[in-house]
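Training component of the fellowship. As part of building independent skills, the fellow (R.M.) carried out the full modelling exercise for a liganded target. The chosen ligand was 2'-monophosphoadenosine-5'-diphosphate. The inputs are recorded below so that the supervisory panel can assess the work.
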Amino acid sequence: MYRQNDGKYSTLSISGRTKILGVFGYPVEHSLSPAMHNAAIAALGIPFAYLPFSVRPEDIGPAIRSLAILGIIGVNLTIPHKERVLPFLDEVTPEAQAVGAVNTVHNDGGRLIGYNTDGVGFLAPLKASGVTLYDRQVVVLGAGGAARSVAHCLAREGAWIVLVNRTPERAARLAEAVNGAAGRAAARCFGLDDTGALADAMAKAELLVNTTSVGMSPHDEEIPPIPLHALHPGLFVYDLIYNPVKTKLLLAAEQVGARTLNGVQMLVRQGAAAFRIWTGMEPPLDAMEQAVNRHLEAANRSE
Ligand code: ATR
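Fellow's submitted model of the complex:
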């Protein structure tokens, strides 16, 4: 068995007792989760290793069932598996069921349980920033997979949600699902081209969340087509993008004196929640965040 001088296991010290975690994605090469989770494992000195698995979409069923056979403790799921995996699990938490997506699977003694930690990942940094959600208006840009987790989470927190999407029908479907799950008319929606309604909603909102990919590297110069004059100092602007660390939207928000947050914390907190489920241990948040930032900086240097 390989151990470091301080008696902790190095991430390279694989032994017969090493427990395996991982991420299934396609592509998986750019995932920051291996770096983040292996940093957590190293910081705690526990006998785990977290590996990337390139799993084709059509193989997700047998791949996920293999956890039970191989004794793999758990995996994260990223594009394109989050929705497709549901029928292959033994149990899915009510939250993941409502969102319709699973990002974390735990092999609990052979039973495969699906969780969605994106909601808690989204929420934890907001709470840490002191943002109040109950009875407050929130504008959410986008209606894709990320928006689904965000909107359900906001509804559970008692917020009033305005969903704004380029394809309005998609926002309407999401609003209907959120209202059905919440049991109240928590969400309304309109198209991104309805700039008058959007400016009005932004003026009354305390939180604006960008869940779209607009402004994400390598398209750093893009900004979501929203009425920027409606940004105001009382607005908290949360962009789920973490590369670049400051999108054009966040820069514009800073210029009017709005508080801002990027997606690094959400990435760390959704990973931390998964780590807690798999290991039962308190995740070292600082080590995880440092690993993410280190890898983002390295990725940007090599571009
Ligand atoms: P994710 O799982 O990351 O949310 P997704 O499900 O593909 O990814 O959703 C991407 C979101 O970004 C959608 O809301 C998409 O709008 P449409 O539903 O109209 O496709 C939005 N989006 C992507 N590119 C956009 C662009 N150039 N302008 C406006 N919205 C855009």
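The panel noted the following from the submitted structure. The radius of gyration is 20 Å. Residues 142-147, 165-167, 170, 192, 211-214 surround 2'-monophosphoadenosine-5'-diphosphate (CB under 6 Å).
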